[in-house]
């Protein structure tokens, strides 16, 4: 009897896999609009009533989702990118949750070796998405998902198919460089990054613009110093001369490994006002010796640079974007409360573009000031920075051999331009004395 049951179970699973493959083919290649809706409804109906049973269909759909996610990894996507694009395409909600579940089962089955190969950023993205296997078995996934959502089997199956349609239609994108062995962070570096994060967190939390500006300025100063120390240390490591970098960083040859080359990360650019936000990220990247390439069609920019600079640029962009958005809303409310008739979108778009333009000037000046001061006591600094600039440019060219300038749209509000520049002007990002 058990052999017959096992044989029947295998036949049911094989039949379910075949049916799921057929349905997904129809769903994936259906044209947008009514044809896609019809294909999804027909597919969900067929699977919900499949003779193989709900358990076999559940296992087959989960395996298809896992395979779709793995194909996306091979196509250059990473967890945060995938969640972002699916959320944008589907409006978030249950379909995005299905994709996160698919990431979770793929990571579990890929194992520890794949996790190590993909690196800590990959693991951090999965953690931030809360990608965990919460269901008891693959045959029970659909039932548990329907129970969690309080929906019918048909509705749940429909959403799973809709999520897989999005994954199956995603284009290949430029893959990021594989993780490279990097010099381990020293206690001094960890303390510096901790202080930078603390300053930016305080800047975001305060209700006083002047205090936020002072805290952001101090954070930028520490970032510039951190970048200079890292450049000198890596230059010394490459030369193999065993010298120590300023600021207490350990010298090469003391167990901290060799210098690594440029790497890349992706930073999500959420709407609205994507162009202006991408411009702000580009300004922050350039001031921190990185290059930014915006991919508007998939909702992110790629930052290329050395690890310390990438981390600084990502931290500062996140903080400045929050502060700029707060200032934009405050200025917009004041502007429109005076009875102005200008459209809100024009005002806000122009405000952010002006803010980014002025921040570029100020951040660049702050970096140049910090570099000039450090170069007086470190003759190797300028050659080290020049070598890093060449390496970053080369890596950017390898990843993106063809790029085009983006023409800004919506800069049509003179008051918004003035208010945006004024908000950036208040952020005095020059050198300050130690707190």
Distinctive features:
435 residues, mainly alpha, disordered C terminus, three-stranded antiparallel beta sheet, 15 helices
Describe what you observe in this structure.
The termini are far apart. 68% of the residues lie in helices and 4% in strands. It is mainly alpha-helical and 435 residues long. Helix 1 packs across helix 8, helix 10 packs antiparallel against helix 12 and helix 12 crosses helix 15 (414-426). Strand 2 and strand 3 form a beta hairpin. It has helices at residues 2-29, 34-48, 54-74, 79-90, 94-118, 120-128, 141-149, 153-168, 187-205, 209-239, 274-287, 307-337, 344-375, 381-399, 414-426; strands at residues 263-268, 291-295, 300-305. The protein is built from 15 helices and three strands. Strands 1-3-2 form a three-stranded antiparallel β-sheet. It is elongated.
Layout of secondary structure:
Layout: H1 2-29, H2 34-48, H3 54-74, H4 79-90, H5 94-118, H6 120-128, H7 141-149, H8 153-168, H9 187-205, H10 209-239, E1 263-268, H11 274-287, E2 291-295, E3 300-305, H12 307-337, H13 344-375, H14 381-399, H15 414-426
Antiparallel strand pairs: 1-3, 2-3
């Amino acid at each position: 009897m058990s052999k017959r049951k096992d044989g029947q179970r295998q036949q049911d699973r094989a039949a379910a896999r075949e049916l799921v493959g057929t349905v997904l083919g129809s769903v994936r290649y259906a044209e947008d609009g009514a044809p896609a809706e019809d294909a999804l409804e027909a597919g969900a109906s067929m699977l919900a009533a499949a003779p193989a049973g709900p358990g076999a269909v559940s296992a087959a759909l989960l395996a298809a989702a896992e395979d779709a996610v793995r194909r996306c990894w091979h196509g250059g996507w990473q967890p945060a990118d995938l969640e972002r694009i699916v959320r944008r395409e589907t409006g978030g909600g249950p379909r995005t949750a299905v994709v996160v579940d698919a990431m979770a089962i793929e990571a579990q089955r890929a194992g520890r070796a794949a996790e190590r190969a993909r690196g800590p950023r990959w693991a951090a993205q999965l953690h931030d998405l809360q990608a965990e296997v919460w269901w008891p078995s693959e045959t029970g996934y659909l039932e548990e998902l329907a129970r969690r959502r309080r929906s019918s089997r048909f509705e749940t199956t429909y959403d799973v198919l809709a999520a897989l349609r999005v994954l199956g239609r995603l284009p290949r994108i430029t893959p990021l460089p594989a993780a490279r062995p990097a010099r381990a962070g020293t206690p001094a570096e960890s303390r510096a990054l901790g202080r930078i994060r603390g300053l930016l967190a305080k800047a975001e939390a305060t209700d006083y613009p002047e205090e936020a500006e002072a805290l952001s300025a101090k954070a930028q100063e520490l970032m510039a110093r951190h970048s200079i120390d890292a450049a000198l240390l890596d230059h010394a490591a490459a030369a193999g001369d065993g010298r120590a970098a300023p600021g207490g960083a350990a010298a090469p040859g003391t167990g901290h490994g060799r210098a690594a080359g440029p790497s890349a990360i992706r930073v999500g650019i959420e709407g609205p006002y994507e162009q202006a936000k991408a411009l702000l990220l580009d300004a922050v990247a350039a001031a921190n010796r990185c290059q930014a390439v915006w991919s508007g069609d998939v909702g992110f920019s790629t930052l290329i640079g050395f690890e310390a600079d990438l981390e600084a640029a990502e931290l500062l962009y996140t903080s400045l974007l929050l502060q700029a958005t707060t200032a934009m809303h405050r200025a917009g409310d004041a502007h429109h409360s005076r009875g102005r008739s200008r459209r809100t979108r024009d005002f806000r778009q122009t405000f952010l573009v002006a803010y980014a333009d002025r921040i570029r000037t100020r951040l660049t000046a702050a970096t140049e000031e910090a570099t000039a001061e450090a170069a007086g006591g470190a003759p190797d600094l300028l050659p080290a920075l020049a070598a890093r600039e060449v390496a970053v440019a080369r890596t950017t060219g390898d990843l993106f051999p063809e790029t085009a300038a983006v023409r800004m749209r919506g800069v049509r509000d003179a008051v918004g331009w003035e208010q945006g520049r004024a908000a950036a002007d208040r952020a005095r990002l020059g050198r300050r004395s130690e707190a």
